[in-house]
Amino acid sequence: SLALERAENDDAAAQTLIGTIYANGLGVGQNLALASSWYAIASQNGDIAATFELAQLYQNGTGVPKNRQRAAELFNIAAEAGHREAMYNMALLHVEGIYAEPNLALGASLMEKAAEAGLAEANYDYGIMLMEGVGVPPNQTLGANYIGVAAQFGLVEAQVEYATFLYLGKGVEQDRAEAILWYMRAAEAANPVAQNRLAKLYAVGEGVPLDLQTAAMWRSLARRQGLNDPGLETLLISIAPEDIKRAEERAFYWPGETPDERGPGASVLQQSPAVQTRLINRP
């Protein structure tokens, strides 16, 4: 192919493309060892995307023997060239202090750069660092702002955190109506913490209409993901049996139509989003 011809003529971008083709099995059999070879060549020729991809392979031990020290070295090269995911990973490595120099201030600086480059996870983590004063002077207002940006990007855990800040007035002006909207977004994305908190609000009618049946529905959804809250059980102790039954039906068919509207069918309960690995694995 043209890409292979260019790769064999030392075109770094083409070499990275060939590496990606083999890494993902795009039209060819997946071959991570061959992908790593092409990434290594492209990296040597100065392609930063290839350097980052090669670092990931060493980080995970795919296509090459697992070597987190080598991964850190490659992440650092890419970070110094301005690769935002590499900056994020190096920030975490500096905070961890095992495969990179223990340096909270440097970690915070890199995290800020990755956040300013538009990486949702970096906005969230830098916000937490500001809230807790990790590597930077504590600043709840600025921290809440970064976490709010991450929430706007769609990072569900940030949406839950930001909702809590709004609800409590922590780092932001208290706005419980907006807090409930953020809890709702996260709950609809199948976050069990948000579902549990919505259940409590409906159980007491705080910021939303008092509705034990809806509270029980959100409780059921959170329970399915392993979140049990004795305090919520106490709030729902007076719920009528028919409301419990209806709540379970609504949870079974959530999200979407009720059984009466759609008829019997398989559950469409959304699965909980995968927990962030805290090492970005995609460019």
UniProtKB/TrEMBL annotation:
Record-linked SMART domains: SEL1
Stretches with biased composition (Polar residues): 268-283
Positions of the UniProt region annotated as Disordered: 256-283
Pfam families the record matches: Sel1 (PF08238)
Protein name: TETRATRICOPEPTIDE REPEAT FAMILY PROTEIN
Organism annotation: hydrothermal vent metagenome
The organism's taxonomic lineage, starting at the top: unclassified sequences, metagenomes, ecological metagenomes
